[in-house]
């Protein structure tokens, strides 16, 4: 490992508050250096918002730091410990191929984790090599940045650097390191680890830390730990409603992949709906559809219950009373999710206020899309621009009746047609990271070292609500046979 001597200043302003928690929660870890580090993707806009010198980071210095070959001044690299329910089964986990360099304090006073993903073995690698292949790191870069553009809370991607070290999966693949930025990596599984193997004081220290970092406004509340649960429930209800509205399928909603900050994290076998199919599963490892698109709200509720269990000792000394309080809080998740989702669907349809037939309009359109295998994103886009003839449902007699009822509902509201159109423009993206486009970019990068398709796709996804001519080529769905057989795979 190269040391930090003579590394040019690039704006790092590290704090390492997580490393001040009890040592049970982490292990000091040094990233394994790359053989021939090369920076292939770099998020200049994100770097500047973090207070970093983007120009210097795009030099050899940046390639060394962002591949794990050099440690920036002020960083204290650690691997975090956590547990989790994976497809329903509980197990000990931890950062098996990631190292947290520390927390960057930005010029405007925000705090973000700087994590290297794919930087080598840690204490928690469980027999793995700790490395990452280039393809999955490009996938996470593309989709996390697309999610940011869509307005969905998410971790973000600062860079992808190749290492010059091949990794072995089904075959030899080029290795890479992703630099991931998140408001934190505090997971439901972090609390499960503390509850299972920590002391009461260690669990309390973790909860107090989480409150100070993410919900400082509840610090002096009469019952801050119950309020922590309520706030996490609220954040998750908002988050998963946004997933459903955008047609996003996470693919591996284990409790270790759910954050208390309410950010989307860990983009493994994720994908987006093309045709509207509620039971759709893309992940090759989700053989029974546990994490299917339509199951995501229910699984979120199940995961929240597992998180709530960890807080029982803190919520009340009387266990029965604590359980009752937690159950009351959990019982509101469904209502919160439904409220956010219904509001989002009405925005996608340009509807203001509440009328008795609104739910029938929403359900009727979704049924039409399902029955006729209509493209989810393009159906709403055609409605946005008042072009029913361009809708995937065009020519279907049932659609004509639905369209007339929808227009009547819009025409009867006091808000103007222009206001309804603007609401729809802001709620219906022109582009999403189409699965076939993402695969096309990954294949060009891995097979031909051609990263131009990735950069072009990322650029088109930066502002999905622009509805610009430059986005037109990314709007087309894949051929039907390609969509039907498409599978995603976990990067490990």
Description:
There is one protein chain. Helices cover 42% and strands 12% of the residues. The two termini are 24 Å apart. With 492 residues, it is an alpha+beta fold. The chain is globular, with a radius of gyration of 23 Å.
Low-confidence stretches: 1-6
Number of helices: 17
Structural class: alpha+beta
Beta content comes to 5-15%
Q: Major beta sheet, specifics?
A: 7 strands, antiparallel
- The mean pLDDT is 95
Tell me the radius of gyration: 23 Å
CA-based shape: globular
Helix content: 40-55%
Cα separation of the termini: 24 Å
DSSP strand tally: 15
Write a concise synopsis of the structure shown.
The protein is an alpha+beta fold and 492 residues long.
List keywords for this structure.
two-stranded antiparallel ribbon, disordered N terminus, seven-stranded antiparallel β-sheet, alpha+beta, 492 residues
Reconstruct the topology from this structure.
Layout: E1 14-15, E2 26-28, E3 38-42, H1 44-49, H2 54-57, H3 60-66, E4 78-80, E5 83-86, E6 89-92, E7 98-105, E8 111-117, E9 132-133, H4 134-149, E10 156-162, E11 167-168, E12 172-173, E13 175-182, H5 188-197, H6 200-214, H7 224-246, E14 248-249, E15 271-272, H8 296-315, H9 319-330, H10 333-348, H11 358-371, H12 376-384, H13 397-411, H14 417-425, H15 435-448, H16 452-461, H17 480-485
Antiparallel strand pairs: 1-7, 2-4, 3-10, 5-6, 7-8, 8-13, 9-13, 10-13, 11-12, 14-15
Helix pairs in contact: 4-15, 4-16, 5-8, 6-8, 7-8, 7-9, 7-10, 8-9, 11-13, 15-16
């Amino acid at each position: 490992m190269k040391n930090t001597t003579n590394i040019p200043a690039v704006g790092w302003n590290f704090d390492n508050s997580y490393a001040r928690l009890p040592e049970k929660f982490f292990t000091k870890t040094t990233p394994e250096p790359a053989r021939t580090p090369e920076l292939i993707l770099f998020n200049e806009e994100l770097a500047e918002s973090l207070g970093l010198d983007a120009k210097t980071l795009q030099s050899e210095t940046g390639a060394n730091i962002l591949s794990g070959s050099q440690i920036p001044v002020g960083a204290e690299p650690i691997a975090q410990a956590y547990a989790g329910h994976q497809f329903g089964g509980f197990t000990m986990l931890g950062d098996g191929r990631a190292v947290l360099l520390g927390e960057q304090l930005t010029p405007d006073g925000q705090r973000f984790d700087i994590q290297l993903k794919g930087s080598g073995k840690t204490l928690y690698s469980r027999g793995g090599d700790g490395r990452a292949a280039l393809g999955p790191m490009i996938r996470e870069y593309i989709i996390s940045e697309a999610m940011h553009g869509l307005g969905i809370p998410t971790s973000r991607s600062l860079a992808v650097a190749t290492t010059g070290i091949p990794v072995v999966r089904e075959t030899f693949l080029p290795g890479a390191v992703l630099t991931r930025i998140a408001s934190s990596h505090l997971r439901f599984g972090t609390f499960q680890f503390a509850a299972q193997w920590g002391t009461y004081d260690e669990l309390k220290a973790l909860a107090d830390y989480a409150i100070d970092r993410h919900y400082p406004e509840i610090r002096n509340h009469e019952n801050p730990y119950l309020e922590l649960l309520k706030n996490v429930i609220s954040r998750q209800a908002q988050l998963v409603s946004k997933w459903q509205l955008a047609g996003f399928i996470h693919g591996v909603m284990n409790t270790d992949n759910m954050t208390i900050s309410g950010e989307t994290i860990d983009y493994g076998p994720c994908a987006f709906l093309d045709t509207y199919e509620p039971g759709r599963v893309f992940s090759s490892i989700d053989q029974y559809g546990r994490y299917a698109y339509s199951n995501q709200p229910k699984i979120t509720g199940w995961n929240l219950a597992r998180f709530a269990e960890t807080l029982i000792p803190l919520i009340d000394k009387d266990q029965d009373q604590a359980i009752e309080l937690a159950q009351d809080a959990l019982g509101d998740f469904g209502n919160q999710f439904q409220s956010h989702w219904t509001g989002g669907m009405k925005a996608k349809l340009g509807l203001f206020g509440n009328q008795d037939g609104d739910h029938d309009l929403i359900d009727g359109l979704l049924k039409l899309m399902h029955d006729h295998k209509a493209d989810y994103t393009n159906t709403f886009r055609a409605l946005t621009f008042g072009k029913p003839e361009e809708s995937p449902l065009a020519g279907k007699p049932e659609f004509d009746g639905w369209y007339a009822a929808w227009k009547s509902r819009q025409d009867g509201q006091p808000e103007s047609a222009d206001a309804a159109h603007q609401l729809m423009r802001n709620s219906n993206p022109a582009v999403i990271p189409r699965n076939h486009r993402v695969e096309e970019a990954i294949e060009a990068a891995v097979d031909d070292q051609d990263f131009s398709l990735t950069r072009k796709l990322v650029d088109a996804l930066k502002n999905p609500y622009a509805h610009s001519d430059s986005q037109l080529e990314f709007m087309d769905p894949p051929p039907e046979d390609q969509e039907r057989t498409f599978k995603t795979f976990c990067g490990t």
